[in-house]
């Protein structure tokens, strides 16, 4: 707490030059010492690290504006698929398309789809193609 005010011999140096009289400067130095001891005696509250719940993440994302696609995309309006069963899969795939590692995710999804799932690849690749990647030539 003392930092640079402590000498190598272990002496604490407190200066007070606010007043013209030596008596008042001594009182000011004593007040500084008392305040320094109060700050040193105060134990900060221990922070307990917590993770946000899934519901709080969803609430936060629902209040944010929809910024999945940049304006320079060229699409007029958003594609709505509210009635489909694959909405969550569509949203997840579209969020992967916005990442820098979209090509890697495309390869992973293609591998998993071809070896495990019976869902046609077009259902998964269409959102990535419409996601307006920064490097659209990588999908051609």
Strand content: under 5%
Q: In percent, how helical is the residue content?
A: 40-55%
Structural class based on helices, strands and sheet pairing? mainly alpha
Main sheet specs: none
Shape: rod-shaped
- What is the mean pLDDT? 75
Q: What kind of oligomer do you see? A: single chain
Low-confidence stretches: 71-81
Indicate the radius of gyration in whole angstroms.
Answer: 31 Å
Number of strand segments:
0
Termini, distance in Å?
A: 62 Å
Helix count equals 5
Helix-strand topology string: HHHHH
Structure description:
- The chain is mainly alpha-helical and 140 residues long.
- The chain contains 5 helices and no strands.
- The protein has helices spanning 22-41, 54-63, 87-97, 102-115, 121-130.
- The longest helix is centred in the N-terminal third of the chain and has 20 residues, at 22-41.
- The two termini are 62 Å apart.
Structure, briefly:
Helices cover 46% and strands 0% of the residues. It is built from five helices and no strands. The protein has helices spanning 22-41, 54-63, 87-97, 102-115, 121-130.
What keyword list fits this structure?
46% helix; mainly alpha; 140 residues; single chain
Q: How do the strands and helices of this protein lay out in sequence?
A:
Layout (H helix, E strand, L loop, with lengths): L21 H20 L12 H10 L23 H11 L4 H14 L5 H10 L10
Helix pairs in contact: 3-5, 4-5
């Amino acid at each position: 707490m003392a930092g640079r005010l402590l000498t190598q011999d272990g002496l604490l140096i407190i200066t007070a030059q606010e007043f013209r009289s030596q008596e008042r400067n001594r009182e000011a130095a004593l007040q500084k010492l008392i305040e320094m001891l109060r700050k040193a005696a105060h134990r900060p509250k221990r922070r307990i690290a917590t993770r946000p719940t899934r519901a709080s993440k969803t609430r936060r994302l629902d209040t944010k504006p929809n910024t999945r696609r940049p304006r320079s995309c060229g699409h007029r309006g958003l594609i709505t698929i509210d009635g489909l069963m694959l909405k969550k899969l569509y949203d997840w795939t579209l969020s992967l398309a916005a990442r820098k590692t979209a090509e890697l995710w495309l390869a992973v999804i293609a591998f998993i789809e071809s070896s495990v799932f019976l869902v046609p690849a077009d259902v998964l690749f269409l959102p990535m193609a419409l996601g307006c990647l920064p490097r659209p030539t990588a999908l051609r």
